[in-house]
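Why do we bother with holo predictions? Because pocket geometry can differ from the apo form. Keep that in mind while you read this record for glutamic acid.
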Amino acid sequence: MDNRRTRVRFAPSPTGPLHIGGVRTALYNYLFAGKQGGDLILRIEDTDTQRFVPGAEAYIVETFRWLNIPFDEGPGLGGSYGPYRQSERKPVYRRYVQQLLETEKAYYAFDTPEELEAKRAAVANFQYDASTRMQMRNSLTMSGEETRRRLEEGTGYVVRFRVEEGELIRVNDLVRGEVTVHSSVLDDKVLYKSSDGLPTYHLANVVDDRLMEITHVIRGEEWLPSAPLHVLLYRALGWEASMPQFAHLPLLLKPDGNGKLSKRDGDRLGFPVFPLAWSDDKGSEPSPGFREQGFLYEALLNFLALTGWNPGDDREILSRDEMMQCFDLAHCSKNGARFDYEKGKWFNHQYLRAKDNKALAELFLPLLKARGLEAEAEYVEKVVGLVKERAGSINELWEHGAFFFAPPDGYDEKTVKKRWKETSPQQLSELARVLASCERFDALSTEQTVKEWMESRAYAPGVILNALRLALTGEGKGPHLFDMTALLGREETLRRIHRAIEQLP
Ligand code: GLU
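The structure, written out:
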């Protein structure tokens, strides 16, 4: 077991958009595999036809393309353990269902939904298990002949796992330590349904982990209750010796209050819980995604990595390689991890300001295009360089830099009241003349010329410079004034000054 090559998998069910907790699970698998020099596998667990959502798999694939998390094997990627979509593995599961039936670890059950319903209504806390199975309609209570007859007639059935009573099941979890469960609390889980010829999650999950030679099952805490059953299944299939190690990751909790982070929390508090925007086919409002909110994927990964894990010291900004180098499941928290969106924005801001202007401009250009604006790449680079210090997201680059692409479409009322003085029109016309005649228009020379002029006229610099800023941006804030004039250029600067003089009182 110990000298096996590390192989981990991310095994989403295509039932809708990937939740941000799922992204974190995939990330931890990726970091773990990277640290061990092992393989990362994508497996699509699409055995629940009722919950299957078209487009969900494509969404998952697009998410990891954006996040730049490469899988070594998966649907469309190849690999020698495929197919990687469970719906394409029916014959594989059939074989193991047969094996479990033959070794009497499982049995056929013919109870109709109505019969089960009636039983549940009659018996409080009814559970299909060792204490009740002999009262039910299954191959244990029927003669072999009767069972055969039903199967031949094509009566619908399920195959149930036969969980024996009175056993203590131990799960050694790499995050949570030893977890023990009494087998009596488990029910005889359905492993297979004749109605669609598909296994249920439990059987498919265990069989595939074994056949794909998975060494570590790293998944969300919500799957911890399934782990004892999976241990029993490994045993029943004779695979105990090659059972993977389990690691159940801490739940993502609401930013405020108790309980699991849900989509509703995102809606309520105004942040996304999905990596990419998602619209269902029922025509409801699209759900926002981190990408569309202007998150850099590197920032999102760093933020998610630190939600439920720490590098063992107090570093917060870590590159992908750094995270990989020190990734250790022992440093995952046992308790839930609060999802702090504000902290996420902080990470994004840190990454944004550190990102080089050219790369940032490329991410920003589509936002301009979407608004029907065009600009030279070089110009856009300079703009993002000036405003990135202030922006918390790519989208905010627009909020802070819009005036570089079009004159302000109005002047902020409060700023006008405070900053546009009686003397402003006259002073700005004079300033326009000074700017029109200065020899060079770079930030330094313009600043120098304007300062000298203000001194010579004994003008209060604050009054003039604030009014100039208002004329250029329509607001009271923004980057360094002469960086702006230099970038806007002489012509545009003068045009905006004259426009303000005309339009403001
Ligand atoms: N298909 C399960 C899910 O959607 C996988 C759980 C596991 O990783 O075992 O999360």
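Residues 1-73+250-354 form a domain with the Rossmann fold fold (CATH 3.40.50.620).
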